Amino acid sequence: MLILGLVLTLIGWLTGIGILTTIGIILLVVGAVLMLLGSVNRPVFGRRYWY
After folding, report:
1. Is 47 helix (H, G, I), strand (E, B) or coil?
2. Phi/psi of residue 3, each to 5°?
3. Is residue 31 part of a domain?
4. Is residue 40 part of a domain?
């Protein structure tokens, strides 16, 4: 999710498409939060592991 957010942010910024930049930033934030919660061994949405 972090990589997809970064790619969308860069594409949106380089092409000037605002919606791609916005979606990319949102995905970056959500990915960072999920990564942080996963790194401290906290269950996310009631599940400890996602397969």
Report:
1. strand
2. -65, -40
3. yes
4. no
User: Are the C-beta atoms of residues 36 and 28 closer than 8 Å to each other?
Assistant: no
Residue that is written with structure tokens 């996602």 in the block: 50
Number of structural domains the chain divides into: 1
d(CA 9, CA 31): 13
Question: Sign of the C-alpha dihedral, residues 41, 42, 46, 51?
Answer: negative
Name the DSSP class of 42.
-
Helix (H/G/I), strand (E/B), else coil: 44: strand
H-helix or E-strand spanning residue 7: helix 2-15
Q: Give a yes or no: residue 12 inside a domain.
A: yes
pLDDT under 50 in the chain at which residues? none
> How far is the C-alpha of 27 from the C-alpha of 44, rounded, in Å?
16
